[in-house]
Amino acid sequence: MEKKNVPQDFSKLENFTREVCYAVDENGNYVTELSTGWDVKTTALDVAWSDIEARVNEARKQVLEGKASPVLFFMELRLMDIGIVAAYTGFWKWSIKRHMTATGFKKLSEKKLKKYAEAFNVTVDELKTMQVHEN
Amino acid sequence: MKIDFEHVQAAHCENGVTKNLLRFNGVDQITEPLAFGIGSGLFFIYIPLLKINNGPAFAFRTMPGNIFKRTCKSLGIPVVRKKFSSREKAEKFLEERLAEGKPVGCQVGVYYLSYFPKEYRFHFNAHNLVVFGREDDNYLISDPVMETTTSLSKYELERVRFAKGALAPRGQLYYPKSNVSVSREQIQSGIKTGIRRNIRDMLYIPGNFAGVNGIKFTGKKITKWRDKLGEQKAGMYLAQLVRMQEEIGTGGGGFRFIYGAFLQEAHAFIPNDKLLEISTQFTKAGDLWRSAAVQAAGIYKGRLQTQEDFNDMGEFLFQIADLEKQAFTALSKIKWQ
To answer: Pairing with B222, which of B28, B36, B69, B77 sits 20 to 30 Å away (CA)?
Structure first.
C-alpha cells in the first residue's frame, strides 16, 4: 500500500482515535500513517453488528413467546456464548442450557439469579424483565 | 504517582507494549516492526471448528503473548510474568511495581474497556496495555493502539484484568526485570532467529489449517461457502475474515505490511539486499490481501452474489498463498554471514 492511498474513510473510531497503518512512501520506504478508517472494514463491522442485532431480536421474541428465558436474551445482548456465560457464572454449560428454557429459569434460586445478573451487568429485576441499560 | 513513560502509538497492541516497555528499559534500538519480526509475529490460521462471535476463527498473527516473550528471549532480556488467583494480590503487586517506578504490561479483556467505542468491544481477552501510574482512583494507561494515553478507574482496571472466557488474562502482568542494553550483534542474531522461526511457522507447520497451506485451504473452503452456508452467512464469514485481517491492530493487509517494514529495518542491521527485495514481496502480499478484502466487501454488501464471485475470492487466496510461499522460501535461502 502506498502512503497516499491509506484510506481516510469514516469509522466508528471517530472521536476515539485514529489507527496506525504501515505503507510505503514515494521512494519505496516503509513509513507509518494515521488512518481514520476504511469503508471496507467499517462495513464488515456493520455486518457483524446487524447479525448481533438479529440474534438479540430473535432471542427477545423467543422469550416473549415463552420458548426461552432471559438468560438467552442477555447472553446474545452481551455478545457472549455459553462458554463465556459459564466462565462468568461458574455454572456448568448443561445447566445453563436448562436455565435458558422458560421453565428452567422459573426454578432458579435468588442466589443463582444474582449470579446471572452480575455476569450480564444488570440487576435481578432487569434480568427478569429484559430491561436494558447501557454502560 | 506517575512514571515518566513515553507513550508511542503502534499499529498492534502487543508490538506496541513490547516496544514501549523495552525502550523504557534501555533498549533504544527497538521499533514496532523489529519487535514484530524478532518475535516471529506473522502467521495465518483458520480453525473451522472454533467459533468466535458465531463466526469462524481466523488469525493473521502468532499466539498472543509470543511476541513479547520471544523478542525478550532473543535479545537476552529477563522477564517477569505473573498470573493471579486473587484480585487483591493482583492489585497489590501492580501497586508495588508502580511505587518502584516500573511501568507494567497487562493482558486485559476488551469487552469492558471503557475508552474503546462500543462497536469494538467484543469478548476478546488478549489485548495488551501498559499501566504507568496512578492518580487518586485512576490508573494511567498507555494503550498502544490509542493516539494518546488514557485512564481506567481501579474498578475498571480490575474488571478488564479479570475478564473471563477464552484466553482469560487472570490478572496477568509482565515487564522486563531490569534495565538492559542490547548490542547490535544481539539485534542481528534476534533478527535471524525471528526470520527462521517465521519460515518454520509459515512453511513447515504440520496440517493444512495454518501457514501458507492454511491460506490455500481457506481459499478452497470459501469457494464452497455459497452453497454450503447460503449467501448471507457466507457474507458474514467473509466479513469476519476481513475484520481479523484489517481491524485496528494489524497495520493493514493482515500484518503483511508490518512484516515488509521489518525486513527493511532488518537491512539496516544485516545489509543483505535480498531483504529489501523480499520486503517488496510482502508489500505485494499485503496489497493482495486488501484487494481480496474489497472483493469480500462486494459479497457482504450484496453487490457480488454469484458462485463466480466466490471463486474469484478463493482465487485471491490461492495467489496470496503462492506469493507468501515464494517470499518465505526466498528468505530461507538467504545465506547469513
So the answer is: B36
Burial class (CB in 10 A: 0-12, 13-18, 19+), B65: middle
- C-alpha grid cell for residue B196? 527462521
Determine the Cα–Cα distance for residues B62 and B67; give it in Å rounded to an integer. Answer: 8
DSSP state of B62: P
The answer to whether B50 touches B166, Cβ cutoff 8 Å, is: no
Q: Are the beta carbons of B102 and B70 closer than 8 angstroms? A: no
- Partner B contacted by A94 (CB < 8 A): no
Q: Which of B122, B243, B279 is opposite residue A44, by nearest beta carbon?
A: B243
Q: Is the confidence metric ipTM above 0.90 for this complex?
A: yes
| Number of inter-chain CB pairs under 8 A, A vs B | 130
Closest CA of chain A from B100, distance in Å? 31
Helices and strands in chain B, H and E counts: 11, 8
Domain B13-176, architecture per CATH: Alpha-Beta Complex (3.90)
Residues B285-299 have pLDDT tens digits of: 999 999 999 999 999
